[in-house]
Design a protein that fits this description.
- The protein folds into 2 domains: 182 residues, Rossmann fold; 138 residues, 3-Layer(aba) Sandwich (Rossmann fold), CATH 3.40.50.
- It starts with a strand and ends with a helix.
- Strand 1, helix 1 and strand 2 form a beta-alpha-beta unit.
- The longest helix has 21 residues.
- The chain is built from 11 helices and 11 strands.
- 37% of the residues lie in helices and 17% in strands.
- The strands form 2 sheets. A 7-stranded mixed β-sheet has the order 3-2-1-4-5-10-11, sandwiched between helices. Strands 7-8-6-9 form a 4-stranded parallel β-sheet, sandwiched between helices.
- Bound molecules: 6-O-phosphono-beta-D-fructofuranose (F6P).
- 6-O-phosphono-beta-D-fructofuranose (F6P) binds next to loops.
C-alpha cells in the first residue's frame, strides 16, 4: 500500500507534550515524503471534517508549549450512530491513508475499534495520569508530578508557619500515580490513592502521632478518586457524564474538602484544603515530556513505514518500541501494592 497522507488528532484531556508529538509527526512525516493533516478537537474533527494541512513552519517550536495546537475533546466515535463508518468515510474523503491518534485509554480504545473497523490507525499514549498499560510512562505525567512537587514546596512553608494540616487534592480518578510520585517528591506525610483502601482512623492516627512528636504540621496528598471508606458518600460527583461515561470529579465538595473536614473534626488540628486541578495539566512541558513526545512522534512514523498498524509507540525501559493497542486498552495501569509501601515508609 502506498501512503501519501497521514492524519493526526489529539483526544481527551490535554497533556503537556502533545505539541511535541504533533511537531515530531509533522517534521519526520514531511521529511519522509508524506503530507500531514491535523484533525481538530479530537474525534469530533474527524467526524465533522474539521482539518487542515500542517507544514514544518506551522509546528516550529510548538514543543515548548503546553496544550495542543489541534485542540481536544472527549467526543466518542462509539457513541455516534454509524460513527466508525462516518470516520472511515471522512478519512477516505480527506485522502488520509493512516491516522495517528494521541490520547489516553479512551482515545486509544476508539483508535483500536477504528482499526478493527478497517482503517489504518496507530496510537501515541498520552495522559498526565500515567495509567495507560503497555508503556512504562505516558508523556504529560512528568510535567504534572513536577507541578505537584513544586506546589507542595510552596504549601510546605505556609502550612509549617501556621502549625496546620494541608490536604492537597490532585488528579487521578482511577490510578494514584500522580499522588504517589508527586507526594513522594514533595515529601508528603500521607498519600491516599484509589488503589489502597484506608480508613479515616488510620489517617488521623498517623497525623496525630506526628503532631505529638512535636512536628506540628503536615502535608496530605489525596487523589481525587481516593478510596477513603467512610468519606466516599460525602464526595460530590457531578451528575454529568462525559461521552466515555466518566463522572466529573474535583468540582464542588471533592474528596480534598471532605477529608480536610474529617481530619479537623477527628484530630482537633486546624486543617485547610486545596484542589490543584488543571494547574497540574497546564503550562509548558518539562524537558522529559518534550523529549518523550518527540521520540513517540518520530517512532509512529517509523511504525507507519513498516505497516505496523493497530499498535502504539511505547516506552519500554529506555527504548521506544511498538506495543499492541489491544494490550494498552481494556484495563488501566494502576499502582501496585509494593509501590505504595515504599511511600508509606515516609508517612508521619
Ligand atoms: O484524564 C486526565 C484527567 O486529567 C483526569 O485525571 C481528571 O479526572 C480529568 O482529566 C479531568 O478532566 P476535565 O478536563 O474534563 O476536567
Amino acid at each position: 500500500m502506498s501512503i501519501k497522507r497521514i492524519g493526526i488528532l489529539t483526544g481527551g484531556g490535554d497533556a503537556p507534550g502533545l505539541n511535541a508529538v504533533i511537531r515530531a509527526v509533522t517534521v519526520k512525516g514531511i521529511k519522509s515524503g508524506y503530507e500531514i493533516i491535523g484533525f481538530e478537537e479530537g474525534w469530533r474533527g474527524l467526524l465533522e471534517k474539521k482539518f487542515r494541512r500542517l507544514t514544518i513552519d506551522d509546528v516550529e517550536d510548538i514543543h515548548i508549549k503546553g496544550g495542543t495546537i489541534l485542540f481536544s475533546s472527549r467526543t466518542n466515535v462509539d457513541k455516534i450512530k454509524n460513527g466508525f463508518n462516518i470516520a472511515r468515510k471522512n478519512l477516505k474523503e480527506a485522502g488520509v491513508d493512516v491516522l495517528v491518534a494521541a490520547g489516553g485509554e479512551d482515545t486509544l480504545g476508539v483508535a483500536l475499534k477504528l482499526h478493527k473497523a478497517g482503517a489504518n490507525v496507530v496510537g501515541v499514549p498520552k495522559t498526565i495520569d500515567n495509567d495507560v498499560n503497555a508503556t512504562d510512562y505516558t508523556f504529560g505525567f512528568d510535567t504534572a508530578i513536577n507541578r505537584i512537587s513544586g506546589f507542595l514546596d510552596m504549601l510546605r512553608t505556609t502550612t509549617q508557619s501556621h502549625n496546620r494540616i494541608m490536604v492537597v487534592e490532585v488528579m487521578g480518578r482511577h490510578a494514584g500515580w500522580m499522588a504517589l510520585h508527586g507526594g513522594i517528591a514533595g515529601g508528603a506525610h500521607m498519600i491516599l490513592i484509589p488503589e489502597v483502601q484506608v480508613g479515616i482512623r488510620e489517617i488521623c492516627d498517623v497525623i496525630s502521632k506526628r503532631f505529638e512528636s512535636g512536628k506540628r504540621w503536615a502535608l496530605v496528598v489525596v487523589s481525587e478518586g481516593a478510596a477513603i471508606t467512610e468519606l466516599m458518600k460525602d464526595v460530590a460527583h457531578s451528575s454529568q457524564l462525559d461521552d466515555f461515561g466518566h463522572v466529573q470529579l474535583g468540582t464542588g465538595k471533592g474528596i480534598g474538602d471532605v477529608l480536610a473536614n474529617a481530619i479537623e473534626y477527628e484530630t482537633g488540628y486546624e486543617t485547610r484544603s486545596i484542589v490543584l486541578g488543571h494547574l497540574q495539566r497546564g503550562g509548558t512541558p518539562t524537558a522529559f515530556d518534550r523529549v518523550l513526545g518527540t521520540r513517540f512522534g518520530v517512532h509512529v512514523i517509523e511504525m507507519i513505514e513498516k505497516g505496523e498498524f493497530g499498535k502504539m509507540a511505547s516506552l519500554q525501559g529506555s527504548e521506544v518500541k511498538a506495543a499492541s493497542l489491544e494490550d494498552a486498552v481494556g484495563e488501566l495501569k494502576t499502582v501496585a501494592a509494593h509501590r505504595y509501601e515504599t511511600a508509606r515508609l515516609f508517612f508521619g
